[in-house]
């Protein structure tokens, strides 16, 4: 194993975070805008749009697992590293696939449905090829707990920054054009190009420091995934993320409807994004400080409960702009902390996996975690698409009082319930304490003492 006693530089941490800005400027387009693009621009029903999200995300979840296994099974690792080349060479194809998802060809209704399925499934595969190695990279950069927390913090800041850029910029760019088909194509193209630049900076300025020699023989795929069942922290984290990520992306899919119909102004999207993401960036920056003070598990739970209380207040109180913005911003602060920590915890789970099984398989562990995130995203895309039909949503029309209540419930009550389940799972079942993690790192270091300083 390569010697990893030095602390990461600020440049490396920032560059790693920029990688998730690149991810988000492509991925967030689908999570925030694609449902409304499908229903209002492409012209497919909300039921079909929900089905597109469900099936393509399930496909994408299995793509994650396959990509993770492929990354870990490679024996011809170049000087560029095990993970970084995927970020470099996968970024431009991903940008192209992002744009294709937001084109609205003049074809039959059946053709539009097929086009939506094909382009979003292809995007999901392209995103897996970039994102699984990117997520695995953190565990290969350092084993230092505080540096790990810093990487999680910078990744969370990167994620929130991409949300800020896309949330503030996309709709105003679209509205510059009388033809919204053209507006979306221009806006998405700009976001994707910027994303490619940030991916390159991530590749250029990061280093894989925790390195082992490539295997001479491939481990059977079935064995790789069977070993995961002995990794309790990973299993709990996957289940927690299933509920928490479903809550986050469900809200992202619904909030444009809430702003347009409940608050009466879709252009509030820019203001909402600026306030909530701005405070989320501040919250994410404080993750290392909170981790030093409370530990990772307690910090995670505290952040979730801040968001839960805020959602409950916004659901129970009358719909009023100023009150909504204040409470939503407070909730965003708490949830930004909770949403930033899984990237730290999954890196810890990789070390736990090596300690427990003797196999260091960053790609498989991270892709297994990502598998559950994609299932959550599938639910988050499917539920609002179907629920909008159930509550009587009619595109581009005045909504009934019952429909407005339904939109409000999707915006607050459903995410609240999902986050509460996540918090309870974390409280009662997550067992990787700070003391146990320190023990794991010490034992892994002792295990590799006396070996070749470059590889094991």
UniProtKB/TrEMBL annotation:
UniProt domain Major facilitator superfamily (MFS) profile: residue ranges: 1-434
A Pfam family per the record: MFS_2
A GO MF label: symporter activity
Gene3D superfamilies: MFS general substrate transporter like domains (1.20.1250.20)
Keyword terms of this UniProt record: Cell membrane, Membrane, Symport, Transmembrane, Transmembrane helix, Transport
Native species: Lederbergia lenta (Bacillus lentus)
InterPro entries cross-referenced by the UniProt entry: MFS_2 (IPR039672), MFS_dom (IPR020846), MFS_trans_sf (IPR036259), Na/Gal_symport (IPR001927), Na/Gal_symport_CS (IPR018043)
Transmembrane segments: 37-56, 86-107, 113-134, 154-177, 183-203, 234-254, 266-287, 299-317, 323-346, 375-394, 406-430
Predominant location: membrane
Subcellular compartments: Cell membrane
Protein name, per record: Sugar (Glycoside-Pentoside-Hexuronide) transporter
Ubl conjugation is among the record's keywords: no
Gene Ontology cellular component annotations, sorted alphabetically: plasma membrane
GO biological process: carbohydrate transport; sodium ion transport
Top-level lineage group: Bacteria
Membrane topology: Multi-pass membrane protein
